[in-house]
Amino acid sequence: MFDIGFTELLVIGVVALIVIGPERLPKVARTAGHLFGRMQRYVSTVKSDISREIELEELRRAGQSFKASIESMGTEVQQEATRIDDYFRDETDRIAKVVEAMGTTEGERPVAGPALEAAPPAVQQSLPLDEPEQGAPPPSAVIEIARAPADKSA
Length: 154
Known about the structure:
By secondary structure, this protein is mostly helical. The chain has helices spanning 6-20, 25-102, 114-118, 139-147; strands at 105-106, 109-110.
């Protein structure tokens, strides 16, 4: 810290021994050691406080940059949502115009128009086995007739 060599320490010790005296030197050395220890702890505490403040300031800056990036991302998302909303509104208006051009509507069914006149009406057909015809044998009788042996006299 102060770059004091061994010879300089030896000179300081001899001067202290002469000035303070041999009876009080151990007590003064002990007190100097305690004061030096307190000073080291104080310097260590100040260094750690300074490093914590520096880290805290870095975290604040990182948080602010993160907040700014999130806000810009939110703005971009809002702009895209507005653009998509405008697109869907335009498409809805276009579809409404096409439907209006086809003809007016009554409730949910179109009344008349060129597209409706060209399409044939839908016919619902039922399968023959679903509803037997009047006077027709049941399906089991048809199967019995098909299994009967053929007449050989013909």
